Amino acid sequence: MTAAAPQSRREASGWLVLAFAAIALLSLAIATFLGVVDLPPADIVAALTGHGSSEARSIILDIRLPRILTGILAGIHFAVAGLLLQSITRNPLADPSLMGISQGAMLAVSGFLVFTVYVHDPGSNTLQELPLNWLPAIGTIGGVLAGGFIYAIAFRRDLGPLRITLCGIAVGAVLHAIGIGMIAGWGSARIEVLLEWFSGSLYARSWEHVVFLLPFTLAGLAILPLVRRPLELLRFEASVARSFGLAYSRQFSLALLIACCLAASAVGVVGPVVFVGLIVPHLARFIAGRRFDLVLPLAIALGAITVTLGDLVGRLLGQAEEIPIGVITAICGVPVLIALLRRTT
Amino acid sequence: MKKPMLSCSGLSVKYGRREALSDFSLSLAPGEIRALIGPNGSGKSTALQALAGLTRPVAGSAAIGDRAVAYMSRREIARHLAFLPQQPVAPDEMTVEQLVRQGRFTHVGLFRGYGPRDEEAIRWALESTGLADFADRGLRELSGGERQRAWISAALAQEAQILLLDEPTSFLDIGYQIEVLDLVYRLSRERGVGIVMAIHDLNQAMSICDRISLLEKGRLVFDGQAHALADSGLIEKVFRVQGRFVQLATEAPPHFDVHLSRWRDITP
What mean pLDDT do residues B58-86 have? Predict the structure, then answer.
């Protein structure tokens, strides 16, 4: 092997990541310029630079942009969380919904809504001001608690990856059942809000949501370089990874904690957008091939791209009655997953 | 005798209530090859794992030099000691070179890039195992023997002075078995690497190893050289077989010739 070969390979890798970053930016631009309300491109540019009509400014700056940015951040969260979970559980099917994190957030949110609404006005069936501002924080706490609970169960015995996956599935199923039961026994007029959130939606997401997510994103991305190499080693069985010099339990816990925080905060804001956490890591691995160092940056870019474009499709197809992003990703995700499975086996 | 690089005394390991290893002692000198033999379930793997600090003993302790393994970080241990478990599994799409590169983790840590020193170690590890031309092959494309050599290569890349191998020759055909054993011998003699390996083939153990530890039900019943083992009569008892030790040449180690019931009536 010559020294030149890895050099040129590294350059090619850099270009690939740049290309996907460019696609992510491009999808951001497309999503800004296309929408249910047809605005001329000139108006949009004017609105972005702080000029133009107040209507265009309101649509672009108050509605579209925060919604797209929320989607990008959530997409990054789901993709990175899925990649982390798949690596540490050595289970290609692991994702936030499989590991009980999404269900924990769902139960917390439905429990919170039922509780607060009944406390404030018992018996009424009217759609009045639900405490929606609290949902992201409540969902995040619920998701992290569920993750922590699963971790605690798995940790008390042995940190076996299969055991932690099974725990996740079991706990997730129970939490889901309780959450659904709670909604079923609840007034019908309010169900709509929850259903929309449960299907994973970017509808009416505002700057508040961006501000809520951004600290998690930044903190998560800042810690990622720390887990880059351990992540490769965590894909071996524990005895091998430890023999190579990895502090297995500590690195496993750290990766799980990051995954929990990212996934739970995203679920809290947009609801469980299924399949992004499952498919994007596979897609990233497929594109990266044997260049393992590319998987993480590609997953970040692809997470942003899938959610942005998925939401755009949902907005354009449904027009006023838009299709939630979670429905789009689920529908598009299945064929992608099947195609990937066929390629790898 | 040279100062031991790896030692343990009074080592006991329990799995639940079952005592898998009791009061096990061993000391390994630089450049020494030590065989661990014994029937299935006699505690060979457990002994290796306890020596590598992967299993917490209920009594006794293992030490690298004069430092207790229990008080060293995993990274520190990996710099001195490489351990290859039985039938290890690697992530699917990994190549030989990528596997071998993991052996450098103990040196590069979380952040530092791979320097010329690391690349050199990786190249040496690949060449020593005859895998330089296979570097970019996926592990799944390899034969069993090649894959086993790739794992040994990863252990070599750690550049540890102590090498623990759990049945490195099992599931290999005789050609690859000899290749692995020759490599082990070269490492010990040329690089002064101290090696402990669990091995099933008694004759290979006697011919390549400087000392042999015989385990029975978690207890050490013999620790010494091949000739003494042959004279002890323990092999027939522990493995429940009939046989005899023969001397094939004056300088050669003893060779165990096992009796099969089919040939019982034929006397040499």
Answer: 94
A250 and chain B in contact, CB less than 8 A: no
Instruction: Give a yes or no: residue B268 inside a domain.
Output: no
Could you tell me if residue B21 is inside a domain? yes
Rounded to a whole number, what is the largest CA-CA distance in chain A?
76
CA of B260 vs chain A CAs: smallest distance (Å):
38
Range list of H helices, chain A: 4-33, 41-48, 54-57, 65-89, 101-120, 135-156, 161-184, 188-198, 207-233, 238-243, 248-270, 276-288, 295-318, 325-344
- Interchain CB contact of B243 with A (< 8 Å): no
- Which domain CATH number covers B98? 3.40.50.300
**Does residue A3 carry a pLDDT above 50?**
no
**A4 at B interface, C-beta within 8 A:** no
Please state, in angstroms and as integers, the Cα–Cα distance from residue B50 to each residue in A325, B25, B224, following that order: 52, 11, 21
Q: pLDDT tens-digit profile of A148-196?
A: 888 888 777 665 777 778 888 888 888 888 888 877 776 666 667 677 7
| C-alpha torsion B51→B55→B60→B66, nearest 10 | 40
The number of distinct structural domains making up chain A is 1
Is the pLDDT at A2 greater than 90? The verdict is no
Domain boundaries, position A231:
4-344
pLDDT category at A198 given cuts 50, 70, 90 is confident
- Which range of residues forms the domain containing residue B27? 6-263
Distance between A156 CA and the closest CA of chain B, angstroms: 15
* Number of structural domains found in chain B: 1
pLDDT (0 to 100) of residue A275: 84
Is pLDDT above 80 for B244?
yes
Indicate the pLDDT class of residue A241, thresholds 50, 70 and 90.
very high
pTM: 0.87
Partner-chain contact B105 A246, CB within 8 Å? yes
Interface contact flag, B85 A229, Cβ < 8 Å: no
Looking at per-residue confidence, does A148 or B3 come out higher? A148
Distance from CA of B197 to the nearest CA of A (A): 15
Looking at this predicted complex, what is its ipTM? 0.89
- The answer for B 135-164 residues in CB contact with A (under 8 A) is 135-136, 138, 154-155, 158
Domain containing residue A121: CATH number: 1.10.3470.10
**Does residue B1 lie in a domain region?**
no
Q: B83 and A243: CB-CB below 8 Å?
A: yes
Task: State which residue of chain B sits closest to A251, comparing Cα positions.
Answer: B110
A244 to B158: CB separation less than 8 angstroms, yes or no: yes
> Is residue B233 included in any domain, yes or no?
yes
Measured at the CA of A62, the angle between CA A56 and CA A63, to 5 degrees, comes to 85
- Cβ of A247 within 8 Å of Cβ of B85? The answer is no
